Each structure stands twice: as C-alpha cells, then as structure tokens.
C-alpha cells in the first residue's frame, strides 16, 4: 500500500496501487513523457513526481481524459488522424496535448514556446 506521504513516485502509485495502467514507464527521468498525467490540469511527469506532491490535488490519467471536453476532442483527433504508431507513449502525448490546449485554447503555440524542442 502507498500512503500519501510516501516518497515513491506517482507513476508507481497509479500503476501498482490504483491499477491505472495507461500511465507508462519509459525513461524514468522526466524526458520521454510516457508517464504524463495531470495535476489540477497541469501536465506533470509522474515518474519524478512524489506521491506527496499530489496530495489534495486532482489527478487525471488517460483513463478519464475522455470525460474532459478538450481531452475527448484530442483523443478523437488521435483516432481520426491515425496518430498512434507503437502506441506506448501515445497516452502521455494525449495528456500533454490536452494540457497545452487547456492552457492556451486559442493560441496553443504561445503556450508551447516554453516547451519547444531543445535540439
Ligand atoms: S517515464 Fe519518461 S518522462 Fe516519465
């Protein structure tokens, strides 16, 4: 059992305790995004987010993103455009895209400036 004050990452609490397995482990270093979830609509990398940081905040995973109007539209766009390849990181990408559109629904490129590729 995982207690809210434990130091384990939210990723393992979601997967192993809550059984919400849409959140994937990729790099474990906040780099790949496969583990992305929302804390109060903010996209976070759950692999490096301690459980204690989520205390008192609303956690949304891919399992429930379709209940959100914007999340539902993003999921439908993923299906319509056949985005998924192997599919492993698609959940994290949907979570990131939804958070971005919620942050700046009319001009998402403005919000993305701080998330630009660093290559
Ligand atoms: S597992 Fe890669 S960012 Fe968390």
UniProtKB/TrEMBL annotation:
Keyword presence, Membrane: no
Q: Where is the 2Fe-2S ferredoxin-type domain?
A: 10-47
NADP is among the record's keywords:
no
Q: What's one Pfam family the UniProt record gives for this protein? A: Fer2
**Every [2Fe-2S]-binding domain range:** 61-111
Recite the UniProt keywords alphabetically.
2Fe-2S, Iron, Iron-sulfur, Metal-binding, Oxidoreductase
Name of the protein this chain belongs to: 2Fe-2S iron-sulfur cluster-binding protein
Query: Species name for this entry?
Result: Halomonas kalidii
């Amino acid at each position: 059992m995982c207690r809210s004050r434990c130091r384990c990452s939210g990723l393992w609490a979601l997967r192993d305790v809550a059984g919400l397995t849409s959140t994937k482990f990729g790099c474990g270093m906040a780099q790949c995004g496969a583990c992305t979830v929302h804390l109060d609509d903010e996209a976070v990398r759950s692999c490096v987010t301690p459980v204690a940081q989520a205390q008192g905040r609303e956690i949304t995973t891919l399992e429930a993103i379709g209940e959100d109007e914007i999340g539902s539209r993003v999921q439908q766009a993923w299906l319509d455009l056949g985005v998924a390849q192997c599919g492993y990181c698609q959940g994290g990408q949907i979570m990131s895209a939804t958070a971005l559109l919620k942050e700046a629904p009319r001009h998402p490129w403005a919000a993305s400036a701080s998330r630009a590729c660093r290559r």
